[in-house]
Amino acid sequence: MDYKQAGVDIEAGYRAVALMKEHIESTMRPEVLTDIGGFSGAFSMKGFMGMEEPTLVSGTDGVGTKLKLAFLLDKHDTIGIDCVAMCVNDIACAGGEPLFFLDYIACGKNQPEKIANIVRGVTEGCRQSGAALIGGETAEMPGFYPVDEYDLAGFAVGIVDKKDMITGQELKAGDVLVGIASSGIHSNGYSLVRQVFAMSKDALSRSYECLSGTLGETLLTPTKIYVRALRAIRDAGVAVKACSHITGGGFYENIPRMLKDGMHAVIDKNSFVIPPIFQMLAKDGNVAEEAMYNTYNMGIGMVTAVDKKEVDTVVQAIRGAGETPYVIGEVVAGDKGITLQ
Predict the structure, then answer these.
(1) What's the whole-model pTM score?
(2) Which value, to the nearest 10 degrees, does the dihedral of the CA atoms of residues 203, 207, 212, 216 take?
(3) Among 242, 244, 260, which residue's Cα sits nearest to residue 252?
(4) Are 341 and 290 in contact (CB under 8 A)?
(5) What are phi and psi for residue 162, nearest 5 degrees?
(6) All residues at 6 or more sequence positions from 294 whose CB lies less than 8 Å from its CB, including other chains
(7) Which residues contact 271 (CB under 8 A, 6 or more apart)?
(8) Environment class of 71 (CB within 10 Å of its CB; exposed 0-12, middle 13-18, buried 19+)
(9) Triad 320, 63, 208: Cα angle to 5°
(10) Longest dimension (CA), the chain
């Protein structure tokens, strides 16, 4: 009896690393001091010593049950973008620049080509956010995961000068909320999605007039990464006062997190385009409107609060970064919370 007979193929692990190396190298930044394959990743902070008070910000997350669709459709090359996005978007919300990322893949059987495809998505997310993929782990766990399934999670570290952190403490009544369009459902609420839509290959391969692709393609659309858009706002000379990444909990949970006590967000539901997939989900699942806004991003993946006089500059900066902005509401005095009208 040996380890391979017990279900763990060490040689497959070596092959997976070899297949993913080319993709990983494309994410490297000059600060990276180590090669893939070591026991840890090293990253030099020398280039940031000019900051008054360099501050590290971090984020960790996974993809959740969206992975079930990747299993069903046997499509694994974009799910890694979701993993990176869920981490680096949170860092960007604090005003941070993502520096590096590490991934963790746990699987029932190490299939090198599949693992390399997953990591290809991770590296694409890293390129989009400017983060280096400096390490990771692929754990083969037979008997714990089915042979054709895996879990994917990640961890990111970024940096910001403390004086430039986005904290919400400068918010005042009259500040304007500018939202940035999402690419669809992103990576939250898929437990409900899987209850509403039939989870079969035939159902997911069906095309609908209102969708730009099949149902499965639409549901697997990767999460938007907003690092470039937020950097463009900063480069335009605008100080974002508060920021919210609209993830699980939708509008009702996430927008209050960007507010300080005594501030209330008022949002106009007619000020932005709701992607058709949300309308399908609400109709087919008989999901109430409040529940939709309490679960999904509804077409707005990131919300920024800025001074009223800066709105035009912010809108232009977001467009210049290739994203779609919407002026969706304002901040008023009142109990900390949100009103959708």
Answers:
(1) 0.95
(2) 20
(3) 244
(4) no
(5) -50, -35
(6) 249, 250, 251, 252, 253
(7) 326, 327, 328, 329
(8) middle
(9) 70
(10) 72
b/e code 109-134 from CB counts within 10 Å (16+ = b): bbbbebbbbbbbbbbbbbbbbbbbbb
Amino acid letter at 178? V
C-alpha 238, offset from chain centre: 23
The helices-and-strands tally (H runs, E runs) of the chain is 12, 10
Smallest CA-to-CA distance from 189 within 269, 285, 118 is with 285
Identify each DSSP E strand in the chain by its residue range: 54-62, 97-107, 132-140, 150-161, 176-181, 242-245, 263-267, 300-306, 325-333, 337-340
Enter the tokens of residue 33.
């001091």
Going by C-alpha positions, the residue among 234, 229, 241 that lies closest to residue 307 is 241
pLDDT digits (tens, 9 = 90+) for 275-291: 999 999 999 999 999 99
Which neighbouring-strand residues pair with 266? 330, 339
Q: What is the DSSP string of 16-65?
A: HHHHHHHHHHTT--TTB-S-TTSSS--B--GGGTTSSSEEEEEEEEE-GG
Token output for 45: 């902070």
Phi, psi angle pair for 322, to nearest 5°: 85, 10
Name the one residue in this structure whose structure tokens are 């869920």: 86
| 181 in Cβ contact with 301 (< 8 Å) | yes
Structure-token match 């399908």, residue found? 280
User: Using one digit for the tens of pLDDT, what is the confidence trace for 70-102?
Assistant: 999 999 999 999 999 999 999 999 999 999 999
Task: Tell me the pLDDT tens digit for each residue of 183-211.
Answer: 999 999 999 999 999 999 999 999 998 99
